[in-house]
Amino acid sequence: MPGKFITLEGGEGAGKTTCLMHLEKLIRQSGIDLCVTREPGGTRTGEKIREILLDRGNIDILDETELMLMFAARSQHLNELIRPALAADTWVLCDRFTDATYAYQGGGRGISQERIAELEQWVQQGLQPDLTLLLDLPVEVGLQRAGQRSTPDRFESENIAFMQRMRSTYLDIAAREPDRVKIIDSSQPLENVLLQIDHIFTDVLAE
Ligand code: TMP
Questions:
Q1: N or C, fewer C-beta in 10 Å, the chain?
Q2: How many CB atoms lie within 10 A of CB 118?
Q3: Which residue's alpha carbon is nearest to atom 19 within ligand 1?
Q4: Cβ(63)–Cβ(19) under 8 Å?
């Protein structure tokens, strides 16, 4: 079976880490070779770029600089890790990818979709995830949940209006690409959320 590229997206407090671990377990239990990675990051260079992007002390990063750093990390990630893995029939499970750029840098920061699409085309050359799970929940609920965690990073410190724009951009993408992007209602109790993932994974295996 050729390698599948699966990404996980969602706002703050959506339970992304727990869902990622659950999906990882399901895939591995099926005997599939799997590489689990994240963005920004996933490579030595990408992780250094991630540090710059998430550091709250970096108050002077311009929006366009932020956008280009996301794609710089992504370019490294695609060439060093994602494309070689898929070529070797290994599945790739990635914690966030370009939908996050449309949601955060586009919806959140207000950079135009056209500008983001130019970089996407340059860096990805048409490569898209086969499947994206979007963990969706109302922003207020997510923030309440995330509030119980440690010090917020540069993105987690953004205001609620930013988060609302980010969520609605994610939902717009899901509405435009229903075959690729599956919405998971993460306001549900955890066991229901994990069940939704089980169903989607069963469908993927049946394809
Ligand atoms: P996370 O690993 O906790 O999700 O943190 C990564 C942060 O980076 C998250 O707040 C979303 C942000 N991000 C963007 O703003 N644009 C992107 O393209 C990606 C991949 C992540």
A1: C
A2: 12
A3: 100
A4: no
